[in-house]
Amino acid sequence: MKVIALTLFAVLHAGTTFGWRVGLLMFFATTMVTLSFEQLGVTTGMVYGTYHYSGMLGPKLGAVPLLIPLAWFMMMYPSYLVTSLIVDGHALPQKMDFKPLGTRAMIAAIVMTAWDAVIDPGMSRTGYWIWEHGGSYFGVPRQNSAGWLLTTFVVYVVFGLLQRWLKPPLQQRSDWFGFLPTLAYAIVTLTQVADREAGPSSVIAFFAMGFPALLAFVRWTRDSKSPEEFSIRSEPERPVTTSGW
Predict the structure, then answer these.
(1) Would you say residue 244 lies in a domain?
(2) Which of 145, 143, 76 has the alpha carbon at shortest distance from 105?
(3) Beta bridge partners of 52
(4) How many CB atoms are located within 10 Å of the residue 235 CB?
């Protein structure tokens, strides 16, 4: 239920922010790319390592539960806007030239993969999915992190290309609405940190997810200053002149 609620929030925010055409394309691109990578990963072990899903996550499409691509978008969208704040200091992505696009995609992939580093050990230990040969990272193979970086990088490149080609009118927002996805990322982080049963994952969450969340918050507080404040600060002092009278 939490996955569906957070996914719905991400879809609604993306549609409202980027326009429904771009927002829905982001959603469908994420679900299609991640579902394809997951199907390939489960059936071949090539992407994330050798694993399979149990029946605890509900009905499947092929070898992958239907909830899984929704969960990808649930966190990929907030991670994208967290990265935007870190890179640009704005709640919405800027500079869609190819070089900044690739840089943002790589940083966003790291921000997103931090979430997997937190949840994967506990979720696999509970039995939602099973790593058939275990791994060195709390029972998770290190290949999984490389697979997550690859998957998320591909999706974020698609996000950037959609913005570059379709050029949605983005009105920069410094209010709470623009900050909500970052707040959602921060709440997920705090939930993991406060989970007493998470073990080492709670400490990992504090640093791996807490640092980008905190950095984004700091950048947002600077971005949220009123235009008047910026204009007052940026206006050069005029020399005092005396009248000739």
Answers:
(1) no
(2) 76
(3) 130
(4) 8
C-alpha–C-alpha distance, residues 72 and 101, integer Å: 20
On whether the CB atoms of residues 80 and 108 are closer than 8 A, the answer is: yes
CA–CA gap between residue 199 and residue 192 (Å, rounded): 10
Q: Is 239 within the bounds of a domain? A: no
Q: Which two tokens stand for residue 58?
A: 């509900």
10-residue mean pLDDT series, the chain (245 residues) = 93 93 95 97 96 96 96 97 90 74 94 96 94 95 97 96 85 72 94 87 93 93 55 42 43
* Residue 194 lies inside a defined structural domain of this protein: yes
User: Would you state the pLDDT for residue 212?
Assistant: 96
Q: Which range marks the domain in which residue 85 is found? A: 2-231
Question: Into how many domains does the chain fold?
Answer: 1
* Predicted local distance difference test score (pLDDT) of residue 223: 67
**Buried (b) or exposed (e) across 161-179, using 16+ Cβ within 10 A?**
ebbeeeeeebeebbeeebb
Over the stretch 77-94, which tens digit does the pLDDT of each residue have? Answer: 999 999 999 988 887 776
Does 236 map to a domain? no
Per DSSP, the residues of 200-237 read HHHHHHHHHTHHHHHHHHHHHHHHTS-HHHHHHHHSPP
